Amino acid sequence: MTIATPVTADTPVNSELATPVAEKPANVKEVLSFLTANFPLCFISEGPVKPLKVGIFQDLAARLGEDAAVSKTQLRQALRVYTSSWRYLEATKEGASRVDLDGQPAELIDAQQAEHAAKLLAESKQKAAEKRKIRQQEQKALAAKTVQAERSPGAAKPVRSEQKRPNKNPKAASKSVKAPVKAVQSPVVKPAAAAVELAALAPQHTVVGAKVLVKLGSSPMPATVTEVNLPDVTVQLNSGMVIKTRQDSLFQA
C-alpha cells in the first residue's frame, strides 16, 4: 500500500489525500496506516492519542468520497479497532477534547463517556489477564508432561547416584524448614446486577442524531444514531466506536 508523505505545518491538512492509493488495503492494519498517513492530526499511530469527534465516520466518508480505495466497511472496522485500543480508552478522560479530521478541537468528554471508557478498559485488561493465565497454565501442563515422559521406563537416562554426606551441623539442619504454603483465597464473586427494563425504540423515533441505548452483550450502552437505512441502523457509541445493528436492537435512552 502506498503511504502518503508527512504533512507539514505549511501544508493544508486533508484538503485532499496526500497520495492516491493504488489498491485497496488488505486488512485493518493497512487501513489504519492509511488513516494515520492522510489524517496525522487526528489518527496517531504511536504514543498518546486523542479522542475522536462524534460523527467522525461521516466526516471520513465525505472526505474520501464514493470512489475511495477504502470502503465504508473497512472504515468501520478500522474505527472499531482504533477506539477499542487501550491507548484510546486511557485517553478518554472527563474534560478531554475530541478532535476532528484536521486536529481541531470538538466537543469535550463528559463524565458518562469517561466512565464508560474506563469500564471498557477494565474489562479488556481483565480478559487479557485471563488469557495470559490460561497460556501459563497450558505451558506448565506441557512442561509437566515432558518431565513425566522423560522419567517413564525406557525413556529415562541413567543418572549416577551420589551418596549424601552426613550433616555435621544438626542445628543448621533444623533451621532449614520450609515455610508453610499460604492457602489461596478464592475470589469474591459479586452478585449480578438487577436486569434493567428497556423500552423499545419506535421506528418513527429512529432518526439521525437520536440518543438511544444499544444492547451489546449483557448490558445496554448509550449511543447516537448516525445513519438510518431500516431495518439497519448505524450508531456511534460514546467511546467513538461505530457499529451497525438492526432497529429492533435499539431502545429508548
Please tell me about this protein's structure:
This protein has 253 residues and is α+β, with helices and mostly antiparallel strands. Among the domains are: 1-123, ProQ/FinO domain (Fertility Inhibition Protein O, Chain: A, Domain 1, Orthogonal Bundle), CATH 1.10.1710.10; 203-252, SH3 type barrels. 34% of the residues lie in helices and 15% in strands. The chain is built from six helices and seven strands, in the order ααααββααβββββ. It has helices at residues 28-38, 56-64, 72-83, 86-91, 111-151, 170-175; strands spanning 97-99, 105-108, 211-216, 219-229, 232-237, 242-246, 250-252. The strands form two sheets. A five-stranded antiparallel β-sheet has the order 6-5-4-3-7. A two-stranded antiparallel sheet has the order 1-2. A hairpin with a 2-residue loop joins strand 3 and strand 4 (219-229). Helix 1 packs across helix 3 (72-83). The two termini are 42 Å apart. Residues 1-16 and 18-22 have low confidence and may be disordered.
Structural class: alpha+beta
Radius of gyration: 28 Å
| Proportion in helices | 25-40%
Biggest pleated-sheet summary: 5 strands, antiparallel
Mass-distribution shape: elongated
InterPro entries: ProQ, ProQ/FinO, ProQ/FinO_sf, ProQ_C
GO molecular function, one term: RNA strand-exchange activity
Organism: Alishewanella agri BL06
Function: RNA chaperone with significant RNA binding, RNA strand exchange and RNA duplexing activities.
Write the layout of secondary structure elements.
Elements: H1 28-38, H2 56-64, H3 72-83, H4 86-91, E1 97-99, E2 105-108, H5 111-151, H6 170-175, E3 211-216, E4 219-229, E5 232-237, E6 242-246, E7 250-252
Antiparallel strand pairs: 1-2, 3-4, 3-7, 4-5, 5-6
Helix pairs in contact: 1-3
